[in-house]
Amino acid sequence: MDQQQILSRITAMVEDEKKLRDALAAGEIDGPTEHARLGVLERELDQCWDLLRQRRAKAEFGENPDDARVRPAAEVEGYQS
Description:
Layout: H1 3-25, H2 31-60, H3 73-77
Helix pairs in contact: 1-2
């Protein structure tokens, strides 16, 4: 996945997040359903942001950005800011 594809995926997931929040506000889904779906989206978003950071770091240091790989959600979730 190249940088533009990652950014497009991030944009789509942010839109999905908004739709979930709107569905909850409209009473179309319940809180636990929204929470579960948001959890999945948040983990996938974290993975996409991590992949994007990897690609940018590799490019900055003269490495091939295509060597960056999606890391497991558990690994990415364990990072601290």
